[in-house]
Amino acid sequence: MNQLRIILLAVVSLSFSFFAIISSCKKDKCKGITCLNSGTCSDGNCNCPAGYTGSRCETDMCAGVTCLNAGHCENSKCKCATGYFGVNCENADSPAIAYRNNAFTPVTIVINGFTQVIAPGAVVGYKRAYGTIAEGSASTSGSAGAKIIWNILDTFLGSGQIKNIDVGPDYFFMKIGNGSDYNTLSMLYVNYGLPDQTLDGIDVPNTSWGYVGIGYYKAFTNSNLRIVTGSEIWSSPVTLPFTTNQSFTYLAD
Q: Is the pLDDT at 11 greater than 80, yes or no?
């Protein structure tokens, strides 16, 4: 029995020795392989970091790639800075600024020397290179009332920019209808008897066309109007909400 135990132990010992010899002879596939540019070897192959390729990570994918205008290369392609595009970021964007006229009269707008007229409620656009300044002015039109002027200083920063042209609550737009026996209404006082009194010659015909837009006037809590035609006089207080783009409508009948 003791002899049998000794034989079994000898067999087991020889088996472990055999496997140890086989294991010690197993080849290291990464031995002698050098991976460049911080690459690492795994099972005989180089795993390259981003931006490098080749059997030993020896090739810089951005070598020879020139990115302009502060762009930079990633994996052989240029990643452009904001406002530029193209294979080498050589092109500048041309973003647009749209100006919307919320006034009751056409507005003449001049941006960088280029003039356009915006109808009430309409929109016009300007395009320039990214970062370019949009400088100019805009003004209402019409022969009666005050001319509202806006100074404009914007920057072209991207598509989808919309700038509203609004008239502040310190002005209101006057609309008048003629329901009288006179063919036309001829004289209009606004803020009659106040320091900012105005007098305009108007032409509001007695037709079914509805109300005629006259112009913009200063808004006060005691604003009023006075229409004089022939021997007839119409007068009324002007009640205002004092909001942006406000108007007042009056029918002389």
A: no
